[in-house]
Amino acid sequence: MTSSHSRTRAATVLVALLAFFLPAVPHASAAASIQEVTGFGTNPGALKMFRYVPDGLPSGRPVVVALHGCTQNAAGYGTGSGWTELADRWGFSVVLPQQTSGNNLNSCFNWFQSGDIERGQGEAASIAQMVDKQVADAGADATRVYVTGLSAGGGMTSVMMAAYPEKFVAGGVVAGLPYGCAQAAGSPYVCMYVGATQTAAQWGDRVRAARPGYTGPWPRLTVFQGSADYTVKPVNMTDLMKQWSNVRGADQTADVSDTVGGYPHQVFRDASGAAAVETYSITGMGHGQPVDPGSGAAQCGTAGAYVLDVNLCAAYAMGHSWGLG
């Protein structure tokens, strides 16, 4: 045997001994990923469905529906907002509807089109079918389904809460609009830039008309709004508060006025003492989703276009108040 053969054999023996005596290193399992789902229903609104399901998620867990804003997509919003991160942390699945360019060139959900905001029609019906599909596939808790969204996705969040209130226990509107705002204002642009002149009762009547004969319970609402938002004016947060406090039987006087993360925060309670509406005014923030990137317990999200680092993660605040974590 040559010296080179001896060295090779010695090296082989050394590797074998190391493998025997050193602890085995477990193989890292692949993290869950956002997947497209087809065949979720008749899909009258011609939307796409994506979802995020953490690996090993047991049955009986909640579902969050997260609706992206204009120029965004499902995956980008799901990760940027922090919802997929929280899904891993707290154990729930995320449904991520996606608009198509055939419906809207700017990828905005059509929160202002009558044919897309009524029960059983268009985009609203497609999103409702996605909820049913996810609850069935994941064996999820149908009594713990939530809906939230940014901008046009926030407008569509109001739509889902009004047209399908029995499917959602709570909703979160970020820089969005009240239900029926475009119709009340006569134009989506007037709604966004000026607001619509409606009393709290008139706002509430628009929601009640979306689900005739429904007696409740109605979803509770959380709103996030930048005080320097010139795309969706802050008056829309006030109108959302009026609309959903009226629907929930609350007045428009805050029962709690304090600060969270240094930002003004209010809670409006219904007759039973439960929170009907909760609002966060993000001082100095423009149009976007508030996030707080980092590894802290209350941190989540990744800053990007219309996803703004303001040291407060809206997804965390919503999820925490909803009892997700």
Give the integer mean of the pLDDT values.
91
Overall strand count: 12
Coarse morphology: globular
What is the N-to-C succession of helices and strands? HEEEHHEHHEHEHHHEHEEEEEH
Low-confidence stretches: 1-30
H/I helix tally: 11
Proportion in β-strands: 15-25%
Please identify the structural class as seen in this structure: alpha/beta
The largest sheet, given as strand count, sense and whether it forms a barrel, is: 10 strands, mixed
**Radius of gyration over C-alpha positions, nearest whole angstrom:** 23 Å
Written overview of the protein:
This protein is an alpha/beta fold and 325 residues long. It is 34% helix and 19% strand. The chain is built from eleven helices and twelve strands. The protein has helices spanning 3-21, 74-80, 83-90, 114-117, 122-138, 152-163, 181-185, 188-193, 200-210, 235-247, 314-321; strands at residues 35-37, 48-52, 63-67, 93-98, 145-150, 170-174, 220-226, 256-260, 263-269, 275-282, 289-291, 307-309. α6 links the parallel β5 (145-150) and β6 (170-174). The model is unreliable at 1-30 (pLDDT under 50).
Give the tags.
325 residues, two-stranded parallel sheet, disordered N terminus
Task: Give a brief rundown of this model.
This protein has 325 residues and is of the alpha/beta class. The protein contains eleven helices and twelve strands.
Protein topology:
Layout: H1 3-21, E1 35-37, E2 48-52, E3 63-67, H2 74-80, H3 83-90, E4 93-98, H4 114-117, H5 122-138, E5 145-150, H6 152-163, E6 170-174, H7 181-185, H8 188-193, H9 200-210, E7 220-226, H10 235-247, E8 256-260, E9 263-269, E10 275-282, E11 289-291, E12 307-309, H11 314-321
Parallel strand pairs: 3-4, 3-5, 5-6, 6-7, 7-10, 11-12
Antiparallel strand pairs: 1-2, 2-4, 8-9, 9-10
Helix pairs in contact: 9-10
